[in-house]
Every structure is written in structure tokens, then in C-alpha cells.
Structure prediction request, 122 residues.
Amino acid sequence: MILWFTITQIAVAAVVGVVCVVLGLVGRRPGDVSVIGMLLVQALLIAQIVIAIVAPLAGNDPTGSLLEFWTYLVTAALLPIAGVAWAFIDRGRWSVVVMGVLALAVAVMVYRMDVIWTTPIA
Prediction:
């Protein structure tokens, strides 16, 4: 993984998560801010998938469990899609809170992916 890109992903997911949770708790329904924020998180995860495919070819091999890394990455990539789908089905304020919680979960999962990628297997 690329450190600056990982930090960017974590920061963006955390900011989107906090914004969505706050918007949902004040009663806002799904709108441009929440959905576009989740789409940005999704775009960064798709870029991370490409990086994870290309990085070993460029000599940046993972030192942890590759299966665990890819399980985290695929699961994290499905969360924003699920959150936006939920928002289209349930147009209530709680769907925005759910999107926020999912974005925060993505931030934690990206951090864990970095740990898996950079920490040797004991």
C-alpha cells in the first residue's frame, strides 16, 4: 500500500462518516452531500483495488496475510455501495446515519489493511 494514499483514504472516509452522522442526527435526508461523499469513498476504494493489484508487480509486496488483506478490501468496497442502496430504498434520516457509520467502518478497515500489508506474519 502507498502510505500517503492510505492516509488520504482514512481521512476522507472519516470526514464523510462524521458529516453523514451529523447530517442524519439533525434530521437531513439523503442528498447530494451524503451520497457524493460515499461515492468519493467508493472511488478511492476502487483505486485501492488497482493499487493492490499493481503494487506487487512493482516490488511492493505485502508482508502480512494476502487473503486477509483482500477480504478486508472487498468487504470495504461493498460497504459504500450498500449504504447508498440503503439510502435510495429508505429515504429517512437514519439511512444517512447508516452511511456515516459505514464510512467510519471503511476508515477503520483501510487502517487495518495497511497494518496487514506492512506488518510481517509472526
Remarks:
- Residues 59 and 76 are 24 Å apart (CA to CA).
- Residues 3-118 form one domain.
- The chain has one domain: 3-118.
- The longest helix spans residues 93-118.
